[in-house]
């Protein structure tokens, strides 16, 4: 019997993963400055490890460092969001078209959808957003296109960061869950145009919701 190969990661990658999750769950907020010494104490690692982890997250787009300034969690402008979601729309609409043409409905997306339906009454945004990420990643993975998957990974962390604005948005998890249900229903039709239109609508509504949240925060 063959032994399953375990995934091994470096200490730097482990810290980067934990720090990114702390950003995604709202422990560190958009605009918040991160102090290396405090992070080193929090994760009980040398500051050099923190610096290396920060470089990873800057590359992923979920941290920024201005010249001669501190590292901080970025805030999205409307222009940032429009650019990110325009790219997201191109990638996800193409992925949906591929799956509809092949009559594929990813099991992992259906599973994420079912868990979303169970959780939305609990108003657990952290878990809803984690499942949202798994839902869309499952659609990309099901295309079986390494290049499409690789490109999507290059924007997925920034996309997940943008969705964190949902926590303070004027909406409810129930509405978000319904949008994902409609997207799966459109995919089940097997019609590429219907499925792509549903994907475009879902992404457009997501962008509009986050934009309205950003505007509201700017006027507080």
From TrEMBL:
Residues 9-76 form the HTH gntR-type domain. GO terms for molecular function: DNA binding; DNA-binding transcription factor activity. Gene3D superfamilies: GntR ligand-binding domain-like (1.20.120.530), Winged helix-like DNA-binding domain superfamily/Winged helix DNA-binding domain (1.10.10.10). This is FCD domain-containing protein. Pfam families: FCD, GntR. It comes from Halomonas icarae. Keywords: DNA-binding, Transcription, Transcription regulation. PANTHER family: TRANSCRIPTIONAL REGULATOR, GNTR FAMILY, UXU OPERON TRANSCRIPTIONAL REGULATOR. InterPro entries: GntR_C, TF_FadR/GntR_C, Tscrpt_reg_HTH_GntR, WH-like_DNA-bd_sf, WH_DNA-bd_sf.
């Amino acid at each position: 019997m063959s032994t399953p190969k375990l995934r091994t990661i470096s200490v730097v990658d482990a810290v980067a993963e934990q720090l990114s999750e702390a950003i995604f769950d709202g422990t560190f907020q958009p605009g918040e400055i991160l102090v290396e010494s405090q992070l080193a104490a929090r994760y009980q690692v040398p500051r050099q490890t923190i610096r290396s982890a920060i470089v990873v997250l800057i590359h992923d787009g979920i941290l920024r460092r201005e010249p001669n300034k501190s590292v901080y969690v970025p805030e999205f402008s409307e222009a940032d969001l429009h650019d990110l979601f325009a790219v997201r729309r191109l990638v996800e609409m193409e992925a949906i078209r591929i799956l509809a043409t092949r009559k594929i409905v990813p099991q992992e997306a259906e599973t994420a959808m079912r868990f979303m339906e169970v959780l939305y009454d609990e108003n657990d945004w952290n878990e809803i957003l984690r499942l949202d990420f798994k839902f869309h990643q499952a659609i990309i993975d099901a295309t079986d296109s390494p290049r499409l998957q690789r490109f999507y990974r290059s924007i997925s962390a920034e996309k997940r960061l943008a969705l964190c604005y949902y926590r303070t948005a004027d909406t409810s998890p129930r509405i978000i869950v319904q949008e994902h249900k409609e997207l799966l229903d459109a995919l089940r039709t097997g019609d590429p145009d219907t499925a792509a239109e549903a994907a475009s609508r879902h992404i457009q509504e997501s962008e509009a919701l986050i934009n309205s949240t950003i505007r509201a925060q700017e006027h507080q």
